[in-house]
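Narrative of accomplishments. A recurring question from our advisory board has been how the design workflow behaves on a single, concrete structure rather than in aggregate. To address it, we present the structure tokens for one chain from the evaluation set, followed by the sequence designed for it. No filtering or post-editing was applied between the two.
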């Protein structure tokens, strides 16, 4: 259906050239017209119709256009008595003939042209329409690039493939596929549609892994060769974007090649639905070739107009006309749109007139007769009227957005099975995939989120389980697995003389994970590195990006800059950077008894001893004779109080304080025991901060990411770093130390250091804490589905204990248990006991508060009574001060208050 044509400025040149060629035929046509022709009072308005008559779309378009012209001419409310006349031209699938026939229509003074169905022909014809200001309304050209500003007179009454490709991208995302193969016809329609699909998939983190293009009119043998090639590739998801006339050949060849069975996925654009809808009867052989295919069909909302037209179409079928398809509705609506727009055009004072194009004129002696071609004077005004229309036709609401595309684009998602098709959902740019009709969701937006799914699909091979969407390429090439050729820590990965060629912990983990996959993974190991030094691991990972390897297996650390270029599996080994340094045993000192507590803890404990002593003295001073006496004796009592308290409040405070002291004493004893009995080691390097602040040499393993990390992240000068080749070099430089040509410490990943320390009988130690957190994983090319499946397999290995078994096989379990620089960590701080001190402090404050209120109450009762005469007041004893009153014994106060009440009691008697 589509024709391969040149693009860009070449199309303008072609249009000009064809214009000149056609004008050479004008004498044959033999007609000379005036420079200006007016048709404002004409009762007949000419419109052109250009399409390929003998095609699936053309056979449906012609009767639809005739029916639309008949309906318009029979409706007296439209055009006020004027009639439409349609002039048909057959492009015969030729861009050349389409352009020639478009120029012929310019002789007939048409006000609009309906068609063409081909995007390629539409590109060329649009240049002619631009020149003569005649709107071109296409019911079948779906190329998204036709909406460009380059084609101002092009108006699409069907849906743009821009939306169809986004619908396919949503399908790919819905079924969680990452790659597709695009099979398309190599013309404007095919190329531009697939280009949009690539952009839409990229937004979903998917991609087109291969573009399989074939020429328009390709033979079956050419299609067969193309399909044999794509069948050797990894992806099993095929998107077919071709012409209705040639598309069925794709599936016929695929059936012969065994590509319509279990594991394959086929998604066809709306061309397939057009073919199926246009058939009067079901062809069993054809349907057998399409089993399990998913296809899109432009959605036409149900309406009374649609039902009425379909009923009329059934009568037309008796005359040998093809069944109705969606393009018949769009062709009908194109005529309806022109009629209503002309009606508005006339009501707004528009005038139908044509004039010679000033750019085309006959030269002396020329036989071209260019003056016979006329431009539509009101073409621009009529175009704006068309763009602004909003009517309801057979295909639903017909209105255009700012890019001249129809609003509310929608597609039906079909699944072919048995002898028919089954609708499994819808897609629209409003709700994406849904099982609810788009027009329903427009009215009830709240249903959009709850309906974002599809009904079940029956895939090729009559299975309901979702296909994985990829396999290993069936071209005899196993997966190329890159392995670092290490010269140190060979327990993790190393060259081997066995069948695999490699061995080690990482290799066993990879083989165990692959064995859990539900499909075979043929692979071969390829060493990377010269074997004299460890390879640079960043360069190693980049070989995967460069397609030197399909994957990289080994002790590969997952770091940020690597995740940007490859996909990693789930980590199979935890890792992180640590510091290893020489250590020496620390000897106990005479002041070791102070180490269990921090300075802050000692200070707070001492303060509370004084505070609690003072509180108990206050509470016992008035009652307990042991808390009375000379000031020096009472001061000693505060520092040294015994348990023979008398007052209730004093006993409460003392019990709580003794509980606090008991816990502190027990903790102190345990900590001191640990400090004095466990061997303590110390190092000049205490952690990463002290290592950075020093100016001493630091050792780093060959090929490790730690080299760049120390330089770029911690700003350590390169001059301080030393490459280390193997474990023997590790021990050598640590023993020498920085003063004798060695290093102060080594920075490396934890798994290496654990193995190194175990092999050296724990002569060296890890100092400080692990200052980065990461892990080891296997690296794959971006969007490789193997990365996801192997991640699941690694989790299974971890859950069933196999990962630990492999670890125990290759790596020692010996640990260095002697403590290093842990005195400060074992010291007890206030943070561990502040709750106890808080309870004791609250108890003291509560006791003091109760004591104070009780003393004030007694003091008020002890003062002289109010209301006595002056003589009695002079004879009464003087009231003591508050401090003197509190210093008195409790018994004396009570006795005085008792004597004070006796006279009152006598007088009452």
């Amino acid at each position: 259906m589509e024709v391969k044509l040149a693009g860009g400025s070449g199309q303008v040149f072609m249009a000009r050239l064809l214009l000149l060629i056609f004008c050479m035929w004008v004498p044959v046509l033999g007609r000379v017209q005036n420079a200006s022709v007016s048709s404002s009072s004409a009762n007949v308005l000419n419109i052109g119709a250009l399409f390929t008559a003998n095609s699936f779309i053309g056979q449906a378009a012609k009767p639809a256009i005739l029916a639309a012209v008949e309906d318009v001419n029979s409706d007296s409310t439209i055009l006020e008595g004027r009639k439409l006349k349609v002039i048909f031209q057959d492009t015969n699938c030729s861009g050349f003939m389409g352009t020639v026939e478009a120029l012929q229509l310019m002789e007939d003074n048409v006000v609009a042209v309906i068609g063409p169905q081909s995007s390629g022909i539409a590109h060329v014809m649009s240049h002619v329409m631009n020149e003569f200001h005649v709107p071109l309304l296409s019911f079948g050209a779906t190329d998204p690039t036709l909406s460009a500003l380059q084609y101002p007179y092009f108006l699409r009454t069907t849906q743009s493939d821009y939306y169809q490709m986004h619908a396919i991208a949503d399908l790919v995302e819905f079924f969680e596929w990452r790659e597709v193969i695009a099979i398309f016809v190599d013309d404007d329609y095919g190329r531009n549609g697939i280009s949009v699909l690539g952009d839409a998939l990229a937004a979903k983190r998917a991609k087109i892994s291969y573009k399989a293009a074939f020429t328009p009119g390709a033979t079956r043998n050419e299609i067969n060769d193309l399909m044999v090639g794509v069948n050797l590739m990894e992806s099993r998801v095929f998107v077919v974007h071709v012409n209705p006339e040639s598309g069925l050949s794709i599936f016929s060849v695929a059936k012969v090649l065994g590509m319509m069975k279990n594991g394959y996925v086929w998604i066809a654009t709306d061309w397939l639905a057009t073919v199926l809808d246009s058939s009067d009867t079901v062809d069993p052989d054809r349907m057998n070739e399409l089993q399990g295919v998913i296809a899109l069909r432009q959605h036409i909302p149900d309406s009374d107009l649609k039902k009425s037209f379909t009923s009329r179409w059934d009568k037309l079928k008796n005359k040998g006309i093809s069944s109705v398809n969606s393009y018949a509705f769009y062709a009908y609506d194109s005529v309806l749109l022109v009629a209503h727009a002309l009606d508005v055009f006339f009501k707004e004072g528009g005038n139908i007139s044509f004039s010679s194009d000033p750019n085309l004129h006959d030269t002396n002696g020329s036989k071209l007769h260019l003056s016979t071609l006329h431009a539509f004077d009101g073409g621009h005004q009529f175009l704006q009227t068309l763009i602004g229309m909003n009517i309801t036709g057979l295909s639903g609401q017909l209105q255009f957005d700012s890019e001249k595309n129809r609003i509310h684009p929608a597609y039906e998602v079909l699944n072919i099975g048995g002898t028919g098709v089954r609708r499994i959902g819808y897609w629209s740019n409003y709700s994406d995939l849904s099982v609810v009709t788009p027009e329903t969701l427009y009215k009830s937006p709240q249903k959009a989120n709850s309906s974002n799914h599809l009904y079940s699909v029956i895939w090729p091979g009559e299975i309901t389980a979702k296909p994985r969407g990829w396999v290993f390429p069936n071209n005899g090439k196993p997966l190329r697995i890159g392995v670092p050729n290490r010269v140190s820590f060979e327990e993790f990965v190393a060259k081997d003389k066995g069948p695999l060629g490699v061995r080690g912990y990482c290799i066993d983990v990879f083989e165990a994970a692959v064995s859990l996959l539900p499909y075979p993974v043929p692979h071969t190991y390829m060493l990377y590195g010269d074997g004299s030094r460890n390879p640079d691991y960043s360069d190693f990972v980049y070989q995967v990006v460069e397609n030197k390897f399909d994957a990289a297996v080994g002790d590969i650390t997952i770091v940020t800059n690597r995740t940007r270029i490859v996909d990693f599996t789930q980590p199979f080994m935890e890792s992180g950077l640590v510091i290893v340094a020489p250590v020496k045993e620390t000897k106990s000192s005479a002041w070791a008894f102070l180490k269990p507590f921090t300075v802050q803890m000692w200070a707070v404990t001492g303060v509370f001893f004084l505070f609690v002593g003072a509180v108990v003295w206050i509470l016992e001073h008035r009652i307990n004779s042991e808390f009375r006496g000379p000031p020096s004796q009472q001061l000693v009592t505060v520092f040294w109080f015994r348990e023979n308290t008398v007052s209730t409040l004093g006993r409460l405070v003392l019990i709580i304080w003794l509980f606090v002291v008991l816990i502190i004493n027990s903790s102190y004893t345990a900590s001191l025991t640990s400090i004095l009995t466990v061997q303590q080691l110390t190092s000049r390097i205490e952690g990463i901060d002290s290592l950075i602040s020093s100016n001493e040499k630091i050792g780093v393993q060959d090929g490790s990411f730690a080299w760049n990390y120390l330089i770029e992240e911690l700003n350590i000068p390169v001059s301080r770093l030393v490459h280390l080749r193997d474990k023997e070099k590790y021990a050598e430089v640590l023993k020498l130390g920085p003063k004798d040509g060695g290093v102060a410490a080594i920075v490396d990943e934890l798994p290496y250091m654990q193995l190194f320390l175990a092999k050296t009988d724990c002569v060296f130690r890890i100092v400080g804490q692990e200052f980065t957190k990461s892990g080891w994983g296997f690296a794959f090319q971006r969007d490789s589905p193997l990365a996801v499946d192997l991640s699941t397999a690694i989790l299974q290995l971890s859950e069933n204990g196999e990962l630990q078994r492999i670890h125990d096989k290759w790596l020692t379990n010996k640990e260095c248990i002697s403590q290093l620089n842990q005195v400060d960590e074992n010291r007890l701080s206030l943070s561990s006991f502040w709750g106890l001190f808080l309870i004791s402090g609250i108890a003291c404050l509560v006791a003091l508060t109760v004591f104070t209120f009780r003393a004030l109450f007694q003091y008020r009762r002890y003062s002289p009574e109010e209301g006595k005469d002056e003589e009695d007041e002079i004879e009464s004893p003087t009231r003591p001060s508050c401090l003197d009153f509190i210093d008195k014994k409790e018994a004396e106060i009570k006795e005085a208050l008792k004597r004070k009440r006796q006279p009152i009691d006598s007088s009452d008697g």
